[in-house]
Amino acid sequence: MTEVKANMAGSVWKIVVAEGETVSSGQDLLILESMKMEIPIPTDDDGTVKELKVSEGDFVNEGDVVAILE
Amino acid sequence: MFQKVLIANRGEIASRIIRTCQKMNIQTVAIYSEPDADKPFVREADESYPLGGSRVNESYLNVEKVLEIAEQANVDAIHPGYGLLSENGDFANSIEAKGVTFIGPSPDVMTKMGSKVAARKTMQEAGVPVIPGTESAVDTPEDAIQAAKEIGYPIMLKASAGGGGIGMQIVNNDEELQKAFESNSKRATMFFGDGTMFLEKKIVEPHHVEIQILADGNGNTIHLFERECSIQRRHQKVIEEAPSPFISEDTRKRMGDAAVKAAKTIGYKNAGTIEFLVDKDQHFYFLEMNTRLQVEHPITEEITGLDIVEEQLRIAAGEELRHKQENLMIQGHALEVRVYAEDPKTFYPAPGQITSLSLPEGNHVRHELAVDGSSFVSPFYDPMIAKCITSASNRNEAIQLMEEALKEYQVEGIKTNLPMLRDILALDAFKRGNTNTHFIETYYLKEEAK
């Protein structure tokens, strides 16, 4: 099981994967929006999206877990 | 003079404008988005009205809503601050159509200077030196590569309608140009609705030096000397100072004259700034004109004793300029640092909850604040949360004051660029005035890497 964490604080602009979806290393899971910058959050591992911990519009802090893969 | 002014902006600049209005006994109206409801500027205004929404396009850029509030509050003028609607000619036109004064230049001058291609052409015609580059907007990567043959690499690719660094990229060869053109043109279309690009020669080791001007529309145009704003990250300014430690007295005079001539040529009215790049041999080139109040205007106020917002209000109300060029002189030296809510090394944004704020005090330390000790810094807006300005009789003293101020400056709860500001102020290269636009990469990031 792998936790994917936000690398910056911001609001969740778009979630581009769904729970249960198979993802591969480097694939973007969601896009954060912060102060006029849009930062994609990719996974470093292959796996299946077990749980999305955030919804679009949520505010996340740096280091918060946004998704769990298995 | 106006009775009541609406400030179509947020944060520190809204507070700054309210302060001068209060001094002049002018009533103030603030407008605010949902995340800004608890910010200082909303409390400081005599009246405040919610715009609804969070993102700028659903709040501060909602022209219809702004006009509706202006009418409801019965204001006689709108101050647009900087950014947001400040350089939007259509907005200025629509408020003037309702009999409300726009505190700024005429809409057609704004529109002309807002297009980089048109601005460059106008300046060239006025005899102001411009950077070698494309004379008109370039639509395709193929045309760009053709133009690059004549200009020579390295080249700066820019979006015609861009600003704030969006759509700008340095390219070194045809292949890089092809790629950068496609991606930046796409972004420019998305952000500004205009994907046309232009190319210009990249000036090596340039200094960013800008001239503040004031014009009353009755033929009186003056300049308030220069600001050196070379220390930048992501093409945005971090530390500014006035006067420039780099330009000679002769260059200062020639740049001031060129700026006044340019402003007169376009029939400019109100406060404006002409930005130049100055190369290592003191050649200067027109970069762009900002037809509004500038973020870093306080350092000019510190060295001239003028209140630029007051001058703006007086000019917009139809008064003649009260100052003559020959009576103005540079008094001492001023520095400004911008406090950004961001990681000091990666420059990634760092919004969040401020838990405490402790500011340095002193007669020669000036603060412009967007937040207080319990503000939530929203992810929807610019990361600048405050500015700190020091002034003294000379540069060394102003630097020393700033170093002391930054030691005491504490923001808890979020990451800020304060550690970076402290490190830069301590560098010998900064103290020597070696502040070209590559300063952060050349000195600060290199020092960090060691």
Automatic annotation (TrEMBL), chain A:
<dbReference type="GO" id="GO:0003989">
    <property type="term" value="F:acetyl-CoA carboxylase activity"/>
</dbReference>
<dbReference type="InterPro" id="IPR000089">
    <property type="entry name" value="Biotin_lipoyl"/>
</dbReference>
<keyword id="KW-0436">Ligase</keyword>
<dbReference type="Pfam" id="PF00364">
    <property type="entry name" value="Biotin_lipoyl"/>
</dbReference>
<dbReference type="InterPro" id="IPR011053">
    <property type="entry name" value="Single_hybrid_motif"/>
</dbReference>
<dbReference type="InterPro" id="IPR050709">
    <property type="entry name" value="Biotin_Carboxyl_Carrier/Decarb"/>
</dbReference>
<feature type="domain" description="Lipoyl-binding">
    <location>
        <begin position="1"/>
        <end position="70"/>
    </location>
</feature>
<protein>
    <submittedName>
        <fullName>Acetyl-CoA carboxylase</fullName>
        <ecNumber>6.4.1.2</ecNumber>
    </submittedName>
</protein>
<keyword id="KW-0092">Biotin</keyword>
UniProtKB/TrEMBL annotation, chain B:
<keyword id="KW-0443">Lipid metabolism</keyword>
<dbReference type="InterPro" id="IPR005479">
    <property type="entry name" value="CPAse_ATP-bd"/>
</dbReference>
<keyword id="KW-0436">Ligase</keyword>
<comment type="pathway">
    <text>Lipid metabolism; malonyl-CoA biosynthesis; malonyl-CoA from acetyl-CoA: step 1/1.</text>
</comment>
<dbReference type="Pfam" id="PF02785">
    <property type="entry name" value="Biotin_carb_C"/>
</dbReference>
<dbReference type="Pfam" id="PF02786">
    <property type="entry name" value="CPSase_L_D2"/>
</dbReference>
<comment type="function">
    <text>This protein is a component of the acetyl coenzyme A carboxylase complex; first, biotin carboxylase catalyzes the carboxylation of the carrier protein and then the transcarboxylase transfers the carboxyl group to form malonyl-CoA.</text>
</comment>
<protein>
    <recommendedName>
        <fullName>biotin carboxylase</fullName>
        <ecNumber>6.3.4.14</ecNumber>
    </recommendedName>
</protein>
<keyword id="KW-0276">Fatty acid metabolism</keyword>
<dbReference type="GO" id="GO:0004075">
    <property type="term" value="F:biotin carboxylase activity"/>
</dbReference>
<feature type="domain" description="ATP-grasp">
    <location>
        <begin position="120"/>
        <end position="317"/>
    </location>
</feature>
<dbReference type="InterPro" id="IPR050856">
    <property type="entry name" value="Biotin_carboxylase_complex"/>
</dbReference>
<keyword id="KW-0092">Biotin</keyword>
<comment type="subunit">
    <text>Acetyl-CoA carboxylase is a heterohexamer of biotin carboxyl carrier protein, biotin carboxylase and the two subunits of carboxyl transferase in a 2:2 complex.</text>
</comment>
<dbReference type="GO" id="GO:0046872">
    <property type="term" value="F:metal ion binding"/>
</dbReference>
<dbReference type="GO" id="GO:0006633">
    <property type="term" value="P:fatty acid biosynthetic process"/>
</dbReference>
<dbReference type="InterPro" id="IPR005482">
    <property type="entry name" value="Biotin_COase_C"/>
</dbReference>
<dbReference type="InterPro" id="IPR011054">
    <property type="entry name" value="Rudment_hybrid_motif"/>
</dbReference>
<keyword id="KW-0067">ATP-binding</keyword>
<dbReference type="InterPro" id="IPR016185">
    <property type="entry name" value="PreATP-grasp_dom_sf"/>
</dbReference>
<dbReference type="InterPro" id="IPR011764">
    <property type="entry name" value="Biotin_carboxylation_dom"/>
</dbReference>
<dbReference type="InterPro" id="IPR011761">
    <property type="entry name" value="ATP-grasp"/>
</dbReference>
